Each structure stands twice: as C-alpha cells, then as structure tokens.
Amino acid sequence: MKNLINSLHGDKVIWALVAFLAVFSFMPVFSASSNLAYMRHGTGNTLTYLIKHAVHIIIGFFIIYKIHKVPYHYFRGVSRIALPFVWLLLGYTLVKGTVIDGANASRWIQIPFLGISFQTSTFAAIVLYVYVARYLSKTRETPLTFKNSLVDLWLPVFITLGLIFPANFSTAALLFAMVLMIAFIGKYPLQYIGLILALAVAAASFFVLLVIAFPKAFPNRVDTWKSRIENFTSDKPGEDDYQIEKAKIAIASGNVYGLGPGKSVQKNFLPQSSSDFIYAIIVEEYGLMGGLTILFFYMLLLFRFVIASHKANTLFGKLVVIGLGFPIVFQALINMAVAVELLPVTGQTLPLISSGGSSVWMTCIALGIILSVTKKEEEIAQEEADKQRREEALQRLIDKQLLEEEEAERAGNQGQNEDDNPMNAVLNR
User: Fold this and answer.
1) 3-state secondary structure at position 345
2) Is 131 within the bounds of a domain?
3) If 0-12 CB within 10 Å is exposed, 13-18 middle and 19+ buried, where does residue 366 land?
4) How many CB atoms lie within 10 A of CB 385?
5) Cβ neighbours, 10 Å, residue 318
6) How many domains does one find in the chain?
C-alpha cells in the first residue's frame, strides 16, 4: 500500500478528495439502488448494483492513474486530432441515440459487444476544453484577431455545441459557459466575448423558433427539455414535478442528522434516486450535516483546482486545470440545485458519487489530466530542490578546498619565516 501511495504523483489533496467522494458513493448508491432492483428484478437485491458501481470506480481510478503518468502537453495535439472524431461521434449519437428503460435518450449510444451505454457529450466536452486551452495559449505567440479566432476557435466550438444542443440542452449550456470562462481567464478580448455571446443567443433563439414551427422535425429529446423549462416556469404538473416533489420530501425528512444510512423512504419513489437525484437521498439519510459536508468537499476540490491552476508553469496548464476542473464542481452544484428546485431538471449527475459508467470514467479522464499538470509542477519543484542541493554540495566542496589551500599556504609561510629567523641559525650551531 505504501508503494502504491508513493507511486501517486501530483496534488495529494486532490487525490485524497477524489478518493473520499468515491468511497463515500458506495453507501448512497447501495441504498438508492433498491428502487431499480425492485423495478427490474422484483427482488430488491442491490448487491449487483453495488458490485457494478465498484467496478466502475476501480476502472475509473485505473484511468486516473494511467493518464496522470502522461505529460500533459501531449494532450495539446491530441485535442486537435480528436475533435473531428468527436463530431462524427456526436452526429451518430444524434441520429442513432439509444433507448434506456423505454425512454428516449438520444444523448447516449450503445457500445457494440460490451453492452455499455456511453454519453458522447461528456467526452466531447473534455476534448473541446483542452482544444480551447490550446488555442488561447498559442495566441500569446501570435497577434489575435476576431476574424482568425472566429474560424480557428469559435467555429469548432459552435459545431460541437450544435451537435449536442438538440439532444442535451443543459450540457450544451454548461459547456458553452465553461468555454466563455476559459476564454475570459485566457484574456480573450471582452468585446469579442460579447459578440460571441450575442451570436450564440441568436442561434439558440433561431433553433427554438424552428422547434416551435416544426415540432416533428427534431428528435424527441427536444420535447423533453422544452417541457422541462415550461414546467419549471409554470404550475402545470408533470413527471419532473413528481420527481422534484419527492426530492424535496426526502430533503425535508432528513432534518439535521438524517434518518440513517439505508433508511431512506423516498428512494422507493424517485425514478433516478441513484443518479440524478442521489443528493436528495444523501440528505434524507445523512441529514443537513451530511449534505453540507458533501458540499464542503466539492468546494475544497474547487479551491485545490484554483491553487493547481495558479501553480501551473504554463498558460496551457493553467487553462486546462480550469477548463477540466471547474465543470466537475459546477456540475455538482447544478445537481444539488435541481434537487431543491433552484433549477429545472437537467439530467446532470453528481460527479464521483452518482452511479454510472461512462460519466464516472469521463470525470476520471479529466482528473487524470489535471493531476498530470500538478505532477509537472511537482517534478519542476523536485528538480529545483535537487539543483539547490547540488549547488550547496558543490559550494561546500569549494569552501573545503579553499580552506585546505589556505591552511597549506599558512603552514608554508610559517615554515619560511622560521628559516629566515637569524636566531634559528645561531641555535642550530
């Protein structure tokens, strides 16, 4: 175990926080999965879901470990190569999106032979964030103009968003907000950001008008997010209202210290109790203190991302940490906000805690790249420390040599003085 811990490089606090959230996830996932166990098997045996979640977490940590060993600057070129592949993947997903539990889920595809559902937008987000960080770090070397950035930066961004937006409005909105944040921190001109924001609003408005005019010409997923917004802004009852009401009942039932692990009642009524609404189950079982503790750990993770970004020795490293780290925390905040009806239902999971395969693994890929950046800082600090030690050792050798030469010279001068003394000549006779 000690050798394994010593082989983990990078920010140790980030490692510890990720490990805590992952280990904690076993308890609420094991408890909340009873609903799925009854619906699918009629037995209520959640051991299968616990083992499945454990496998996902173990594979996720293996992904983090392998990726954090790769020098992070390699991902500059990978993002540029992977972006066209991402567009093909998103286009295929939009056309051939799978059906999960009888519901349309055009943001997912089924991986052949493995039987695993994969949400392509999460992978697209990672590639796009790294691509934007790469472009903004490169522009420090050449003058930036709006015309050039419109083609080289924003055209790929809008193509990616355009392929995600119809099937997954919340992810597209979050992704666009994160891209704007990266651009702002990367010192992209504010007037250009304003123009891009205006273009995005105009494009989204035009798409909404098309949906209203031709409702049958678009995937069913459009109807889903459209109805969610309408239900959130009106008193019309719907399926999302049912989920929100049950989530609020769960939160209210938790009081300060909760009902206790595994004692949730609303997990039997919430359709997505182990994924989208797992935070409500956590508060019900562990109370307000448990909910605030989870929030505190996500805020601490955000704080470590800020520190890691500040310590990064290159602009690309700074932007990569921000671009990949902040969305993890913001997604967690969105999940919590949905549970208390501050936001409409978005389908965003609680990172590292909600059950899932591809969503956990994509989060782990992002964390692996972040830890690769912090590992580079650690290596540079180690090199500086080694250099300092070598210089100090060399200085000690030089000082020792000079001291020996001075002592030899002093001894020689003393012997010469004794030979030149006339009294020594008389005594010698």
Assistant:
1) coil
2) yes
3) buried
4) 10
5) 22
6) 1
- In whole angstroms, what is the distance from residue 181 CA to residue 319 CA? 10
Owning domain of residue 189: 2-385
Please list the rounded mean pLDDT of every run of 10 residues in the chain (429 residues). Answer: 71 92 90 70 68 90 92 90 91 69 55 68 92 86 78 91 83 90 90 91 82 62 56 57 83 87 82 82 92 94 93 90 93 90 81 84 93 78 67 76 74 62 51
Tokens for 423? 């009294």
3-state secondary structure of 100: strand
Q: What is the pLDDT of residue 103?
A: 43
pLDDT at 427: 45
* 3-state class (DSSP) for residue 118: strand
CB 266 within 8 Å of CB 280:
yes
Beta bridge partners of 247: none
pLDDT of residue 23: 92
Identify the three-state secondary structure at position 104: strand
- In angstroms, the CA 281 to CA 335 distance is 12
Helix %, strand %, coil % of the chain (to 5): 75, 5, 20
Give me 407's structure tokens. 């002592």
Is 417 within the bounds of a domain? no
Contact assessment for residue 325 and residue 302, using Cβ atoms and an 8 Å cutoff:
yes
Residue 59's pLDDT is 92
In a domain, 424, yes or no: no
Does 396 map to a domain? no
d(CA 94, CA 163): 7
| Phi/psi at 116 (5° precision) | -110, 135
DSSP state of 261: T
User: Is residue 97 within 8 Å of 274, Cβ to Cβ?
Assistant: no
What is the rounded distance in angstroms from the CA atom of residue 317 to the CA atom of residue 323? 10
What is the model's pTM? 0.82
3-state helix/strand/coil string of 276-344: CCHHHHHHHHHHHHHHHHHHHHHHHHHHHHHHHHHHCCCHHHHHHHHHHHHHHHHHHHHHHHHHCCCCC
Rounded to whole angstroms, the Cα distance separating 426 from 217 reads 124
Pair 90, 164: CB distance under 8 Å: yes
Separation between Cα atoms, residue 249 and residue 266, nearest integer Å: 7
| Other C-beta atoms lying within 10 Å of the C-beta of residue 319 | 26
